[in-house]
Amino acid sequence: MRTHQHSVRQHILATGQEIITGKGFSAVGLNEILAAAGVPKGSFYHYFKSKEQFGEALLENYVGDYLAELDALLAPDGSPAAARLMRYWDSWLILSDAGCAGSRCLVVKLSGEVADMSDAMRAVLLRGTNDIVQRLAACIEEGFADGSIAAGPQPQQCALALYEMWLGAALLTKLRRDPSALDGAMHATRALLHLPGTFPA
Fold first, then answer.
1. What is the tally of structural domains in the chain?
2. Which of 42, 91, 105, 158 has the fewest CB atoms below 10 angstroms from its CB?
3. Which residues form the HTH tetR-type domain (predicted)?
């Protein structure tokens, strides 16, 4: 029974995330999500007390998945820390080539929208971005230690500056509908970290 309930809850969240990623949070009503998920409204309120609580759970789910993907990209695998760090930024460019760099990232999509709407949802996004920066800082510190990144700013400051730059570039990518801002972020990242153009596979 618990497995079924978890499955239904996850199905509602996954359906909602797909729709909200494209349209935003405010523009999507519960009826649209429930119709797409094939779930009655009574079932929705069994799992979520309100649309805001649903949004909070959706973002927690998204952040958890995002951090798991980031951990996999940055995990030690015998390659220099700098190479692992650049895989993360490369993934932004790959998504841009697929036409979904800005739309895929709910941090970019929803931060401005929910910051003034819901303290609970804002807090989830803030914790998530802080966790991302912490992981990037740890990888940069590993790069200092293994010599693949030249010693420079404090890892935390460097990671925060890079993440803020890439978030801004992703937003500009949405506005311009071209990847030039992300390309610029990549060049700036390599310059800041004093990295070569490519790393061995």
1. 2
2. 42
3. 6-66
CB 195 within 8 A of CB 82: yes
- Burial pattern 94-107, b for ≥16 Cβ within 10 A else e, equals ebbeeeebbebbbb
Tell me if 32 is assigned to some domain: yes
pLDDT at 197: 63
Q: Is the pLDDT of residue 146 over 70?
A: yes
Torsion of CA 174, 179, 184, 185, to 10 degrees: 60
CB-count exposure of residue 196 (10 Å: 0-12, 13-18, 19+)? exposed
Single-letter amino acid code for the residue at 181: A
Residue 32 shares a structural domain with residue 57: no
CATH number at residue 20: 1.10.10
Give the integer Cα–Cα distance in Å for 197 and 180: 17
Average pLDDT for residues 21-34, to the nearest whole number? Answer: 91
Is the CA virtual torsion 33, 38, 40, 46 positive or negative?
negative
Same domain, 78 and 33: no
d(CA 167, CA 162): 9
Please give the pLDDT value at position 182: 93
